[in-house]
């Protein structure tokens, strides 16, 4: 009597098929992004059919449709940059701190940008506090302070970074509240920025944040393999030849550049840097070689889709994209916690 023994699939074949599936999924995500970009240009107070959007983009003729399309393109470009920056920064921060609740606010970047903006508005007055350059220095300073305090002359461990981020953010938020309560004009500038919106930003904002986003993305993408090693623990990573301190420093620098550019351009937008990496990790696993490309594509998908929803539900007005992502992200976070997928 013979028995058939089933052969286990070869590991190389399994990895190859998984890479093929993930590659096809990434192509599908890019196609989804192209569709959302089209909707971002087509949808608004005055809807424009997608075929008219394509015609107006290829052959601008000064017509009303061409003017509407031309006015929406910079907003869509800004959404692409900010969505990619927040999602990639989120996954890098989660990898560096080994904290699944990590997001751009963890390193104090949001609080630093807010403090820098209100101080600039209070000192220089006028519209000085509305520019990208008013918020970037504070974001960079806050992240540097968190890293220095978190290291304390020793190794910057995940726990120290989280505690340092909470302390620095508390101090900076107190500074923001003190200045805005004492100066109504500064409060008005701060109020129009802090909600987080793609609307009302001049086209020059794209050019202002582009160098920061490109440099930050390059730094983060180059750290895909080191972040995989770091996830095994500092001792294991060191035994594999990785310099954990240098990886954390470069990763924090890349994530800070991305966060600073995004927050300075459109204000603090919640949950993009938290939700997108969690969703992507559910089907790619913890391999940053796949996590980073997927977040690079799906971050803009989420942000632009939320922006389109904000225009549709409150037409002829619109909801700020920061409010929409908060409505979507808060239930997502609660569900993740209840299912036990998030832990500290």
Description:
It is a single chain. The protein is mainly alpha-helical and 344 residues long. The N terminus is likely disordered. Helices cover 75% and strands 0% of the residues.
Order of helices and strands: HHHHHHHHHHHHHH
What general outline do the C-alpha atoms trace? globular
Radius of gyration: 22 Å
Query: Can you tell me the residue ranges where pLDDT is under 50 for at least 5 consecutive residues?
Result: 1-6
Compute the average pLDDT.
Answer: 81
Q: With helices defined by DSSP (H or I, 4 residues minimum), what is the helix count?
A: 14
What is the strand tally?
0
Strand content: under 5%
The oligomerization state is single chain
Which class of secondary structure composition applies to the elements?
A: mainly alpha
